[in-house]
Amino acid sequence: MRRPPPRDQPPARRIRRDLPRPEGPFDRLLRRRPERDPAPIIIGGTIAFLAVVILLVVGVSTLLSSDGGGSSGGDNGPEVDFGGVSGRLSSQTPPLPPGVEQVSDYIEFNLADKDRPPISGFALPLKGTTEDPTGLGFYTFIENRWQRLTDVKVVRGGRAEGEFSSIPANLVVLRVNPQPYQVAGSLPAGGSLHAEARVTIISPRDYSPVQDGSVQGTASTLPEGDFLVIPTIIGSGEDTAAIVNDILADESLRETHIQAIVSLVNDSGLDGIDLEYSSVDVDLKPEFTDFVTTLADRLGDKRLSLTLPPPTNQRQAYDWKAIGEAVDMIKVLPIADPVAYWETMPRAISEITDDVEPSKIMLVVSPYSIEGIGDVTRPIGYLQAMVLAAEAAVREPANPDDIKPGVTVKLVAKNLDQAEGASPLRWDEDAAAVRFDLGGTERRRIVIENSFSVGFKLEIVQAYRLGGFAVSDASAQSDVANIWPVIGEFMRSATVSLRRPNEASLLPAWQAQNGGDFGAGAGTSATWVAPKEGPHNIVLVVSDGERRFGRVIAVDVKKGQQASPSPLVTFAPPPTATPAPSPGATVTPTPTPTLPVQLGVRADGDDPDNVPHNDETTSPGSKITYTAIIDNDSDVKVTITSIVDSVYGNITDCKSTISGNPAVGIELEPDDHDGSEVDPDGADAVTCTYERTAPASGEVTNVVRVTVLAADGQTGTDFDDNTKVTVTGP
Q: Per DSSP, what are the bridge partners of residue 140?
């Protein structure tokens, strides 16, 4: 691996990332120096070139006149044969990433001008005596980075064995330490840890500073686990940041605040405390430094963590060298804008590591997607982003009454089709993430955070040999992509694998659950020929390269006109032999939903009992709350792709009563065999609610239909038509 990227000044213009060669992980972090007058460089380069030529001439003359005749291989060892391919043992191993140790020789194979022979396995001698393959892996150094090729399957006779399809340019066996990096997970107050999260530090955001210097908040209930509990005191909001600055400006309040923090840590049996004081006034830099160093001293063996913004070219409130010596860790917050992130964060981390021991620095990784309008960005949920991507519309015929059997219907992905002023799902090299852009006057851009984009951010941790990283929301309740598998792989191999989604996987697909012919089954637009009269559900399926999401658009096919019959003269047919069926001939039925799923819907108006019923009463203009229970009765995981109400249309705001996230997009576990009734309990079910305003009079009778989609493309649907709300009163 190449040494950490050079800490030069940022470039005068951004380097293009769409280079024709494959990109190594550190390429994104490298930067050019600003352009300058080339004349001194040309003159100096010429002088240096002449000096090198002179040295080479003298050096060659000396060698030729020497009586020694030794090898000129430098530190390289002898050549050895590996199954017909020669290699050289080298002591010049590229610098290793943190958290790994070398346990074999580094071999460079002589593959120039040769075809690399196909192989099914390989064995490499180890330096030490070990029979345990745990943590061992075969690695190669390619494109200026370390890449894990495969695990060591077994160690026999001092040789590590693994499975390969071809020989790489170089090879070494490395052992990953049990915990190569620290992983911190932040939790919103009262949140629970994601089931797949494996953290070494857990930081519930439970506390905030008070004007008098005290600390307020209630401790979250945490699961038992092998991690440090280091809660966060949040002083980054508009109100709390002002309180922090008032405390820092007053010596007496600073002392009170220090005592309050120390008492909180000791009385609660905490492992330490994290201060998110990210908006300190630049004029309070000395006071903040004094506050931090004094607090660190008072905490003794308890850990002190700071969560701070990255340095900029402006005046700073943080003396990185002084506070870096005092604290145990510094978590560096990310730049929100995905493109500005790569223009800013590598330089900022480089600057901090000049003053702070890298092992104390943790990069904060946000799992939230980003919506940007102009220069303003804000975090949005993962499912929220994918629901936007999956919004479809009918563009032709313009009049819905003209949609009849046999008529061609033009469908578009409203927020992806270029004809709509939008742009499709694609990999954006500048943001290192999947992106799409909505049309309209505001031109909203959506950048999706998932395992692909997080992998590129983890490269900074490896490149600068940081102590670890922190996930800004590690809870199970938040609407974020599951980034924990890529984090787990990073911890297992101690190296980062940069992956991009397959372009084909980002292409939208169309499905007609009740039949009909598609002129094109993939793309941001499609044509569909309505097969018969009645309601039809068309599903637009989109993907970010990891998961597939479907959203239903309801199309009502009207009754077609029947032609007047003409008089018809008939003749008796001549006798004919009944033809034998062709061997193997079959009729392919129109696909129908096959996955069992159950839906139950109840409504609650403003009547006194506050209990939802099938038959409900309410007053004019009041709020009607609909409660829907969706229960997966299949043996596979399914994703809710749509909820359609016959009165209110597509329901995208039916929110889970547990997580508060939209039910559309939620993945349900396989059936827990809870019986034939609609059961709201268990991971195979979700309960969600949505509100609508009651009309001035009459009745509201709803037919609600839910559709689910499995990973293999199977669908399931169910409906509830037993809900009626009667409007009573004046």
A: 147
Which pLDDT does position 570 carry in this prediction?
A: 44
Q: Are 300 and 360 contained in the same domain? A: yes
According to DSSP, residue 9 is labeled P
Same domain, 129 and 186: no
Question: 340-366: string of b/e by CB count within 10 Å (b at 16+)?
Answer: ebbbbbbbbbbbbbeebeeebbbbbbb
Task: Specify the DSSP class assigned to residue 302.
Answer: S
In CATH, what number is assigned to the domain containing residue 488? 3.20.20.80
Same domain, 417 and 320: no
The tens digit of pLDDT for each residue in 47-90 reads 555 544 444 433 333 323 333 333 333 455 667 766 667 788 88
Same domain, 299 and 266: yes
Most confident of 201-210, 570-579, 706-715: 201-210
User: Is the whole-model pTM more than 0.85?
Assistant: no
Tell whether 147 and 195 lie within a shared domain.
no
Q: In whole angstroms, what is the distance from residue 131 CA to residue 136 CA? A: 11
Q: Max Cα separation, the chain?
A: 117
CA neighbours closer than 13 Å in the CB half-sphere of residue 495: 32
pLDDT tens digits, one per residue of 695-709: 888 888 888 888 888
Number of domains in the chain: 4
Residue numbers of the domain that contains 702: 597-727
- CB 405 within 8 Å of CB 565: no
- Tokens representing 156? 């026999």
In the predicted model, what is the mean pLDDT of the chain?
81
Instruction: Please state, in angstroms and rounded to a whole number, the distance separating the CA atoms of residues 655 and 707.
Output: 16
Record the tokens describing residue 448, joined without a space: 């999706």
Cβ–Cβ < 8 Å for 555, 536: yes
- The answer to whether position 65 is within a domain reads no
Distance (Å, whole) CA 388 – CA 415: 7
Two structure tokens written together for 82: 């590996």
Cross-strand pairs, 11: none
Joined tokens for residue 482: 């599951």
Q: What is the DSSP string of 245-275?
A: HHHHH-HHHHHHHHHHHHHHHHHTT-SEEEE
Of these ranges, 115-119, 576-580, 685-689, the one predicted with the greatest mean pLDDT is 685-689
DSSP state letter for 13: S
Q: Side-chain half-sphere of 108: how many Cα atoms within 13 Å?
A: 13
- Upstream peptide bond of 397 is cis (omega within 30 degrees of 0): yes
- Shared-domain flag, residues 143 and 250: no
